[in-house]
Amino acid sequence: MSILKGKNGKIIENFIKIIGILSIIPVVFILIYIIFKGIPSISWEFLSQSPKNGMRGGGIFPAIIGSLYLTLGTIIVSVPFGILTGVFLVEYSKDNWIKRIINLTIVNLAGIPSIIYGLFGMAFFVIYMGMGASIIAGSLTLGIMCLPVIITATRESLLAVPNHLREGSLALGATKWETIWKIILPAGSPGILTGVILSISRATGETAPIMFTVAAFYLPFLPESIWDQAMTLPYHLYVIATQVPNMPRANMDGTLFVLVSITVGFNLLGAYVRTKFNKQR
Half-sphere exposure of 123 toward its Cβ, with a 13 Å CA cutoff? Predict the structure, then answer.
C-alpha cells in the first residue's frame, strides 16, 4: 500500500485515469458517428415497413421483430440455466478434480469464436434434432453461447459474498435454499446482472451463429411461432452491406443506428434494474 502514497501514488493514479480516458475516446467517437449518420435515415416508414425493391427501399420492421424474438428466446434459455449452474458450483458441489475440470471448461468455452457455436447449432439443433432453421434453434444456439459468461459471472459473484452471511442465516434456522434465495443471490446480484447484460448484449449483435440457424435473407411475413425463420438486424445489415449492389447508404446507416440503439437500450435497462435492486436491498 505504501506505493500508492505520496508522489508515486499520484503518478500511478493519473496514469490509470489517462488510460481509462484513452480507452473511452474511440467508443465515444464511434457512437457519435453512428448517431449523426443514422438519425437522418430514421423515419416511421423505415421502422414500420418491410423491405421493398430488392431490399433497397422500405423499412426494417421484420428484422426488428425477429431480433427481439431471438433476444427474448436467448434470455429464456440462458439466464435461468446459467444462474442455477453457478449456484450449484458454488453452494452445492464439492471441491474436487471434477469441479476444477468443469470450471476450466466453462472458462475455455467463453473464448470459443461465435461461428463455432453457429456450426454446432446447425449440426445439432437444425439437422440432428430436426428443428430446421427456426427461432427455437437460434435461441438455443445463442443461449449456449451465453451460458459460459453467465455461469462465470454468477460463480465469481457468489464467491465474493462473505461467509458470515451464510453462517448467520443458517444459525437463525433458515434452510440451505432459503439462505441462497433470500441472502446469497441478492448479495451477489450486481455481478450476476452484469454478466447477464454483457452476454445478452453480445448475443443481440451476433451474426455468425444465427446465419446458420435462424436468419433469413428476406421474409414477406412476420414469424408466427418459434418454429419459423426470422429476419434479424445483424444479418440484415450484413446482407445489405455486402450482398445487395447499389444499396443506399442511408439504409445501412439507419439499420446500424437501430441495432446499436437496441443494444445500448438493453444495457441501460439492465443498469437501471441493477441500481434499483441495490437501493431496495
Answer: 6
